[in-house]
Amino acid sequence: MKNLRITVNGVAYDVQVEELGADAVAAAPAAAVPAAPAAKPAVKKSAAAGAGEKVAAPMPGTIVSVNVSDGQAVKKGDVLVVLEAMKMENEIKAPKDGTITSVAVSKGESVDTGAALVTIG
């Protein structure tokens, strides 16, 4: 098994790949050979970015909508992000009252379990 890091839409994934043997490698097209991992793209942050409680993705999925922006006041239970997982849309709600100090995702982005979605200060 080989451990590789693959970046898709700016999100890095660590994966394990099984090698099938010399014949399978020789028959593989050149495009199948993994390139060196790309550097992570810069993420826009507000002046107070990172201050507060991070709201994490409860499961892997794709961001369908981001309903908040930096500096926006939210109440406990407000829908922050809609996450699609296994063909179902899941509303990620604010765990407390506060102000959004950073938004770490955008519409169409894929996220893993535990990935920071927004930060509430």
Please outline what is shown here.
It is built from 1 helix and 10 strands, in the order ββαββββββββ. The chain is mostly beta strands and 121 residues long.
Topology:
Elements: E1 2-8, E2 11-17, H1 22-27, E3 53-56, E4 61-66, E5 73-74, E6 79-85, E7 88-93, E8 98-103, E9 110-111, E10 116-120
Antiparallel strand pairs: 1-2, 3-10, 4-6, 4-9, 5-8, 6-7, 8-10
Estimate percent helicity.
under 10%
Fourth CATH level, the homologous superfamily of the largest domain: RNA polymerase II/Efflux pump adaptor protein, barrel-sandwich hybrid domain
CATH topology of the largest domain: the name is: OB fold (Dihydrolipoamide Acetyltransferase, E2P)
Top CATH class of the largest domain: Mainly Beta
Helix/strand-derived category reads mainly beta
**Low-confidence spans:** 39-48
Distance between the first and last residues' Cα: 42 Å
Q: Helix and strand string, N-terminal first?
A: EEHEEEEEEEE
List keywords for this structure.
OB fold (Dihydrolipoamide Acetyltransferase, E2P); mainly beta; four-stranded antiparallel beta sheet; 2 domains; single chain; 121 residues
Would you mind describing this structure in some detail?
The chain has 121 residues and is mainly beta. The chain has 1 helix and 10 strands. It has 2 domains: 31 residues, no CATH class; 68 residues, OB fold (Dihydrolipoamide Acetyltransferase, E2P), CATH 2.40.50.100. Helix content is 5%, strand content 43%. The strands form 3 sheets. It has a 4-stranded antiparallel β-sheet, with no helix packed on it. Strands 7-6-4-9 form a 4-stranded antiparallel β-sheet, with no helix packed on it. β6 and β7 form a beta hairpin.
